[in-house]
Specification:
- The chain is an all-beta fold.
- It has one helix and 28 strands.
- The strands form five sheets. Strands 1, 2, 3, 4, 5, 6, 7, 8, 9, 10 and 28 form an eleven-stranded mixed β-sheet that branches.
Amino acid sequence: MTNHSMNMRKIETEITGTHPSHLTKKIILTVAVMALAGLGAHAQFLPQHLAVLRAGNGTVDLHLKQAPTFVDEFTPGALNNGPVMSVALPTNGPTSIFFNGHAATEGMLSLSADGKLLTFAGYGGKTLLEQGGTPSLMDIGRAVCTVDAAGKATMTIYEQHGGPAKMNPRGAVTDGAGHFWTCGNASGTAFYDAGGDTLQLFSAIPDSRQVKIIAGTLYASLNEADATYLDTEPGIFSFEDGGQAAALPEATNTTLKLVVPASKPYDKIAGFDLSPDGNTAYLADVESGIEKYVKLNGHWKLAYNFAIPQNIMESSNHADGCFAVAVDFSGSSPIIYATTTEGYNGSVNSNRVVQIVDTNSAATVTTIAQAPSENIAYRGIAFTPGSK
């Protein structure tokens, strides 16, 4: 990548086994941090910037389904620029953490409830890049990873391979106090207490697309296929325990409560965001773009859809929607940031980070970052973590 300088700093990564047969160990490793020349290197994420989970370094083939993983920092509004910082996560050996960059469903990124940690879920603890194969079918632990404001990454294996079904992790979120909620398919929706080393599968919710904690409440998204399987509607959901609202559920018998129903044909849902007052929602549709919903007189209505202008010709393109979304609700017009679903050869790659200032349905979609290779994919997006 041109016009970038490399700076090395030590990032402490804690690797924790989560079953009696595992050894708990702490490893100090050196991680490459890339800062854009001219903007200067900085030791930690800048506040209210964008954090994007990236699969691939441009060299390793994403079709291996195991690729180097990074968290890139971008400046909001700085169009078509490279990252100002990039944290490289270890992808070989016992400290490894990665997700399947070839899969169209993996790689969601969320900010913790206390705003201090980025969180995602994937696979960890093995040397991976020497072989191909579907990770969810291989002997690899399911893991959560957090990254703090200083770039310190902590990986914890919460379930070994051979547990419930194939458990395909798609994302995770934490309250910042050692409690995690995961999303995925095949028993992928669960609660994990790292301190007590306990995993509670939400047996009534086998499939989910993303989880986020917003204003102290956990929400999840389901697409049409998930909802049909559960005999409900696609959209954004909160959780209940025994018919009572459960802001941060922990019980095996936890169920879903529909909050924002998605309107057809916009039901290929992946990521989402919800305003703190609970009256505006945005859903990322992998085929259609970004849909805005508003709550009027107690009922949710589709306001409009933002279609995403494409940079890959239709005959070669994987999809023309969005995967993940994060919205800045602080101003008079919400500012939407999303990762797109373009790609060649049947998968997401060479895609973009885009921005929309939501003034009306005709708002312009602009590009903040363009993945420079078919072996790079931008996936989850969130705002950068703070130190306090």
